[in-house]
TrEMBL record:
Entry GO MF terms: ligase activity
Provenance organism: Thalassotalea piscium
Residues in O-antigen ligase-related domain copies: 203-321
Location in the cell: Membrane
Name of protein: O-antigen ligase
Length: 449
């Protein structure tokens, strides 16, 4: 009797594509080509991205298209239509092209090519090394007589450190530092004594870097990240005591320094920008005022990534943007809160019962859950700092979003039931959370103004 054999397509990991993703990561964060005058104008970043994309499409299998990919991709027609509706047709096309390069392609590459914990570690180490180089360059800037670092960049304002590329803005650098803190904590948990000492040193260096950026958004991001970690993992008395201790400090900083960023004239100016952003949304609720047009309607930027997207891309654009982010973040939250239960429920892990394969799968799952937890807190760091900064479309968001998605893919492979965290109900819930955040902004304005 003939048996029907089911042939499953074999996964294929493209080493060449990942190699160029590695080079792309180094190029966007370390940016060595911009440190030399002869290579400053080279299109290194675009070249690495295109080559990585081509090899991914040709040899990486499977090619996954998730709900987050769809939502981010659908932002493209929204950007174009929004621009047309506001009389900026050609600007919408150029903005959508920029969005493809800085958002759509990076999200696809990182979520597709980081197919193992080892690959994740490589990318994470590149991020941490880049952060350390930024801190060292900033230290040189602050201690040089002319304010220049070894990259040829000069500090701004009253000594706010800068770096190459889009890290010339201290706020972007500070956000990057905050998002790297959970990655260092992850390696601290995994390593032994020498590794732990190294992680403590690196963690301290990044805190020093946060101080050098002189960004209140970054400071609040780091402090609130610790508070949220305690809330989620500990809770109870510890969280209350921490809130009592840190709350007055944060309030004093905001009142004394006039806002979250040292460049702001006053806290009222920030709230005024939020108010005008909500008015823009109410006047153009469906498609907004157009991507990049916030400053055309108001004298300064939004100082809030959520307000910026809702005002520029309207209800549809905000649903897609916030949905992609919070769908990923809530899946990470589920992992953090249910890690022990997932590990205890061995029936969810593939493998024969009481076999070596089973033991290996459980250990692999444990490592994956630990990594996913660290990446979740990196996204929390983004959400906090983004609440005080206009970084709605920053490359940092889509790199770390892709890293989170890649981790979730591997967990689904080990625990298929985890896929339920990405169903339609969860998508709707994620969009609702995004709008809940906008309600918080509105309440803040009602109380403060």
């Amino acid at each position: 009797m003939n048996k029907r054999v089911s042939i499953q397509p074999k996964d294929k990991d493209s080493s060449v594509a990942f190699f160029f993703l590695f080079l792309y990561t180094a190029a966007i964060f370390i940016r060595p080509h911009e440190a030399f005058r002869v290579s400053q104008d080279w299109v290194v970043i675009k070249a690495f991205a295109i080559i990585a994309l081509l090899f991914t499409l040709l040899s990486q299998r499977p090619l996954r298209v998730s709900s987050q990919h769809v939502m981010v991709f659908l932002l493209l027609p929204v950007i174009i239509v929004s621009a047309v509706m506001n009389g900026y047709g050609m600007k919408g096309i150029s903005q959508s092209e920029l969005f493809i390069v800085s958002s759509v392609i990076p999200l696809f590459l990182y979520s597709s090519l980081i197919s193992s914990i080892k690959r994740h570690h490589i990318i994470m180490i590149v991020c941490i090394i880049a952060a350390l180089l930024m801190v060292h360059n900033g230290h040189v800037q602050r201690n040089s007589f002319d304010g220049f670092g070894w990259t040829g960049t000069q500090y701004v304002g009253d000594g706010r450190i800068t770096y190459l590329g889009f890290f010339k803005d201290p706020n972007d650098m500070g956000m990057f530092f905050v998002m790297n803190l959970p990655l260092i904590a992850y390696f601290f948990v995994r390593t032994k004594v020498i590794g732990k000492l190294l992680c403590i040193s690196v963690f301290s260096a990044l805190l020093y870097g946060i101080y050098l950026t002189d960004s209140r958004g970054t400071f609040l991001g780091a402090a609130a990240l610790i508070a949220i970690y305690l809330l989620i993992t500990k809770g109870g008395t510890k969280l209350i005591l921490f809130g009592i201790a840190i709350g007055p400090v944060i309030a004093t900083l905001i009142a004394a320094r006039g806002g979250v960023s040292a460049a702001d004239a006053s806290a009222s100016g920030r709230l005024d920008a939020w108010y005008h952003g909500i008015q823009m949304f109410l006047s153009n609720p469906v498609f907004g005022v157009g991507m990049g047009n916030f400053v055309e309607w108001h004298r300064r930027t939004a100082h809030n990534s959520f307000v910026m997207v809702s005002s520029e891309l309207g209800f549809i654009g905000y649903c897609l943007w916030a949905g992609a982010i919070f769908l990923t973040v809530l899946a990470g939250y589920y992992i953090v809160k249910n890690k022990s239960r997932i590990l205890e429920n061995s029936n969810e892990v593939p493998g024969d019962k009481d076999s070596q394969t089973k033991i290996k799968s459980v250990k692999e799952l444990e490592q994956e859950l630990l990594l996913a937890s660290a990446l979740f807190f990196s996204m929390v760091g983004y959400l906090i700092t983004a609440f005080f900064l206009s970084r709605s479309y920053t490359l940092l968001l889509f790199v770390f979003l892709g890293m989170n998605m890649a981790s979730h893919y591997r967990i689904i492979k080990l625990v298929p039931v985890f896929k339920e965290q990405f169903n339609v109900k969860k998508i709707v819930h994620s969009i609702g959370v995004g709008w809940g955040l906008m309600v918080m902004v509105y309440i803040t304005l009602k109380v403060a103004l």
